[in-house]
Amino acid sequence: MSEERIDNVRLQNLAYGYRQSATLVAAIEVDLFTKIAQGARTVEQVASSLDIAPINAERMLVACAALGLVVKNGAGYANAPDVERFLVKGARNYAGPWLTTMGRSDYAAWNKLAEFLRRKEPPRILGTYENFTVEDARKLHRATFSIGMGAGRRFARQVDLSKRSMILDLGGGSGCYCIAAAEKYPRIKAVVFDLPSVAVVANEYIAQCGFSGRINAVGGDFTKDPFPAGADVVIMASNLPQYSPDIIRAVVRKAFEALKPGGEMHLIGEMLNDAKTGPLGPALWGLNEAIYQSTGVAHSEAEVTGYLKDAGFVEVSANEFIPGSLTRVTGLKPEA
Questions:
Q1: What does the alpha-carbon distance between residue 153 and residue 135 come to, in Å, rounded to a whole number?
Q2: What is the rounded distance in angstroms from the CA atom of residue 193 to the CA atom of residue 222?
Q3: Distance between CA atoms of 185 and 179, rounded to whole angstroms?
Q4: What DSSP assignment string belongs to 192-237?
Q5: Cα 26 from Cα 113, distance rounded (Å)
Q6: 181 vs 37, 81, 95, CA distance in Å?
Q7: pLDDT tens digits, residue range 182-219?
Q8: Against a cut of 0.70, is the pTM above it?
Q9: pLDDT tens figures, 293-304
């Protein structure tokens, strides 16, 4: 195949990217992966269990095999290991609601990306969250809670909090990081500081998980409101691209001031490499903010470590959190 032809195929595949996402969402919605896990392996078995025509079962299985979502074994199919772990209903780490909600809700907006890029209106600090209602928060966190708990438990495994007493989670959503920390560390308490509508929902999840006595969600806007006092750990996770460098710098300075001496901050987010040429996921999260008309951009790892150092944190380090997606930048506030 000529070099010209290879380049053309690559561009075609990029143009068809939305079809890949739509295929994944449809497979989750028809319960393909759950039925395979329950024993439907052949085209005929899949068609029967999903109550769809055999030709459509074959089409879906062939496409999912090409995407690496299922593996063909002779005449039958099995789920790929990551699909078996995350996309089978009833599994502890089931992330189907997150993938279907995030995948479908963005289709229409991304199809109008050029229009958003041409807009002249000034950006809004909170972007899509400017008029966020309690029902909006419930809908979002029904989708994100399961995947958030996975990230929270990963954090609790990576970071030793055994000598800490109070977490302040900035923009903590449904409280996953605090809930996971409370599961692992019996003495730790926490405050989730998020928008008032989100705090209502966070307290519902906290109660559901049995931690109302140790975790409390407080309503506020961390871009302008004072932070709750008394924390020796500050976490800010998965909201980095929603804000401009100036806003992140200000939030990190406020976190430094709010922390007890000797406390630590963990800023976990979608970060670019220092050359700002990737990874793809963080780059697209930054572009996504054009749709929501926020001030947000994709930040590099070097920029984020700089935010912490400029605020006064020491022993600042960048640590891989989720490969190709999330980085955890950590710093300590010096002892008084």
A1: 26
A2: 7
A3: 10
A4: EEE-HHHHHHHHHHHHHTT-TTTEEEEE--TTTSPPPS--SEEEEE
A5: 23
A6: 31, 27, 20
A7: 999 999 999 999 999 999 999 999 999 999 999 999 99
A8: yes
A9: 999 999 999 999
